[in-house]
Specification:
Radius of gyration: 22 Å
Structural class: mainly alpha
Largest sheet: none
Number of strands: 0
Shape: elongated
Strand content: under 5%
C-alpha cells in the first residue's frame, strides 16, 4: 500500500492511474512485488489518515543530499596541516 502511495506522490501520478496501470501491466506489478492491487477507496482512506508534514519529512530524509561540511574556526597551536 505504501509503495503505491509513495510512487504516485514521487512521480505526481493520480492513484487511479497507477492502480489501473498495475492492473494492466503484470511486469510492473511483479517488479513492485505486489500480489494484489488494492481498491482505490482504501488508498484514499489511508492517504487521508497520513499527515503531510510526516510524509514530507520522510521524503526529505530519504532523498537528502549529503554534503561534507568543513570545520571552520581557528586551528589550535599544536594542530598541523598534513
Amino acid at each position: 500500500m505504501m509503495k503505491i502511495v509513495t510512487i504516485a506522490d514521487i512521480f505526481e501520478r493520480a492513484y487511479s492511474d497507477l492502480i489501473s496501470e498495475l492492473n494492466e501491466n503484470n511486469k510492473l506489478k511483479s517488479f513492485m512485488k505486489l500480489k494484489n492491487t488494492p481498491e482505490l477507496d482504501y488508498i484514499y482512506k489511508l492517504r487521508s489518515k497520513l499527515d503531510i508534514s510526516v510524509i514530507s519529512t520522510f521524503f526529505r530524509g530519504t532523498f537528502k543530499v549529503s554534503r561534507r561540511r568543513k570545520k571552520r574556526g581557528r586551528r589550535e597551536e599544536g594542530e598541523r596541516l598534513l
